[in-house]
């Protein structure tokens, strides 16, 4: 058996020690007499898993006490619909800064509930940059400003937190959470689907400044209500126990590896390796994103000659490098290099790219 280096954008590669631990606990979790996914979410064993996952996440991300953490089903897209329901009055304006596919999705999901207003967009430019903060135009009385911290498909990442004054900043961190130290206190809400950097798909993390939970929001069922979810300790209904358990293992692994400061350094080195391979290829490979806002997590690139796309993918696979096909929205290639991707994997890809160019250039 050999595991390839897996550059999938999500669901994405998981740390091997996490998979091994899950494997070893598959038939029986500690002395529970059953696996963690076969027992009640309200029993002491799972409650221990759930609370230690939250404790580890709070430690990893330095989440201040005045922020609540919710673990819910439904993925990031669901949070994009729940945010206007929870934090804005019906028809109230909400500002969206659209810097790629996921910003556009967030705008669409909020559409039925609020007066969405595009404060800035780089769509006309093909999402290759982030509009300068000075050009953003906010709606009067906006409930919040929404940004996508890292655009997973277009490969565009905010490199600094924009100042939006007193209006709560809401950020989709699905593909860059825990990739570097972050001042959570600058945000009203941070949300992330787990399947990029936190574990397997099926659970989302939402970090909410507690005072925002007191906002009235809109009529909504309990299950869509962040306040009720918090009161119910994210267990209003059966939570995705397997995913919660795996998230806990993944977060603990990140702490054991040295935490977000360590990953920030690794991620800087990993992405620099790939961008150099692209930029030094004399146009054989190209990445079109403004270098100032290139993503450290997702590196999209195109080959000069599209006819080489297929051979590139099949030769990469033979070399043990999988899931490099770009998203169908933009085509080309994409290497997703989240925390669980080892530096050796990125080095192997950069070496392969140079070798492929020598043979086909
Ligand atoms: C993957 C992704 C989403 C969508 O996540 P789902 O869990 O599939 O709903 C949203 N935003 C970003 C930035 C993503 O990377």
From TrEMBL:
Q: Where in the cell is it found?
A: Cytoplasm
Q: Aminotransferase class V domain: from which residue to which, for each copy? A: 5-349
**Cofactor note, please?**
Binds 1 pyridoxal phosphate per subunit.
Q: Which residues does pyridoxal 5'-phosphate bind?
A: 76-77, 102, 152, 172, 195, 237-238
Please verify whether the record's keywords include Transferase: yes
What is catalysed by this protein? Answer: O-phospho-L-serine + 2-oxoglutarate = 3-phosphooxypyruvate + L-glutamate; 4-(phosphooxy)-L-threonine + 2-oxoglutarate = (R)-3-hydroxy-2-oxo-4-phosphooxybutanoate + L-glutamate
Q: What is its EC number?
A: 2.6.1.52
Residues bound to L-glutamate = 42
Top-level enzyme category: transferase
Co-factor(s): pyridoxal 5'-phosphate
Please verify whether the record's keywords include Amino-acid biosynthesis: yes
Cite the annotated pathway.
Amino-acid biosynthesis; L-serine biosynthesis; L-serine from 3-phospho-D-glycerate: step 2/3; Cofactor biosynthesis; pyridoxine 5'-phosphate biosynthesis; pyridoxine 5'-phosphate from D-erythrose 4-phosphate: step 3/5
Gene Ontology MF terms in the entry: transaminase activity
Question: What residues bear N6-(pyridoxal phosphate)lysine in this entry?
Answer: 196
Question: Per the similarity annotation, which family is this?
Answer: Belongs to the class-V pyridoxal-phosphate-dependent aminotransferase family. SerC subfamily.
The record's subunit annotation is: Homodimer.
| The protein's role, per its UniProt record | Catalyzes the reversible conversion of 3-phosphohydroxypyruvate to phosphoserine and of 3-hydroxy-2-oxo-4-phosphonooxybutanoate to phosphohydroxythreonine.
**UniProt protein name:** Phosphoserine aminotransferase
**Which organism is this protein's natural source?**
Noviluteimonas caseinilytica
């Amino acid at each position: 058996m050999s595991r390839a280096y897996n550059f999938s954008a999500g669901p994405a590669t998981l740390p091997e020690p996490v998979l091994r631990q899950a494997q070893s606990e598959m038939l029986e979790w500690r002395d529970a007499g059953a696996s963690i996914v076969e027992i009640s979410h309200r029993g002491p064993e799972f409650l221990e898993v759930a609370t230690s996952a939250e404790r580890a996440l709070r430690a990893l991300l330095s989440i201040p006490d005045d922020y609540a953490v919710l673990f819910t089903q439904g993925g990031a897209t669901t949070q994009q619909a729940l945010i206007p329901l929870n934090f804005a009055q019906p028809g109230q304006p909400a500002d969206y800064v659209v810097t790629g596919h996921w910003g556009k999705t967030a705008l669409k999901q909020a559409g039925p509930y609020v007066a969405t207003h595009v404060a800035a967009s780089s769509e006309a430019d093909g999402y290759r940059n982030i509009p300068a903060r000075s050009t953003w135009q906010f709606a009067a009385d906006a409930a919040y400003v929404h940004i996508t911290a890292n655009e997973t498909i277009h490969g565009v990442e905010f490199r600094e937190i924009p100042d939006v004054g007193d209006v709560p900043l809401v950020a989709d961190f699905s593909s860059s959470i825990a990739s570097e130290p972050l001042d959570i206190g600058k945000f009203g809400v941070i949300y992330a689907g787990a399947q990029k950097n936190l574990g397997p798909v099926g659970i989302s993390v939402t970090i909410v400044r507690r005072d925002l939970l007191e906002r009235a929001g809109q009529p909504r069922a309990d299950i869509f209500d962040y306040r009720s979810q918090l009161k119910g300790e994210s267990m209003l209904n059966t939570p995705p126990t397997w995913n919660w358990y795996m998230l806990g293992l993944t977060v603990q692994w990140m702490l054991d590896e040295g935490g977000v400061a360590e990953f920030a350094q690794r991620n800087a080195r990993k992405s620099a390796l790939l961008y150099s391979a692209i930029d030094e290829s004399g146009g054989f490979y190209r990445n079109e994103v403004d270098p100032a806002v290139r993503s450290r997590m997702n590196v999209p690139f195109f080959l000069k000659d599209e006819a080489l796309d297929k051979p590139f993918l099949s030769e990469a696979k033979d070399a043990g490098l999988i899931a490099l096909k770009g998203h169908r929205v933009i085509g080309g290639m994409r290497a997703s290099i989240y925390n669980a991707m080892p530096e050796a994997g990125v080095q192997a890809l950069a070496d392969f790219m140079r070798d492929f160019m020598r043979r086909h250039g």
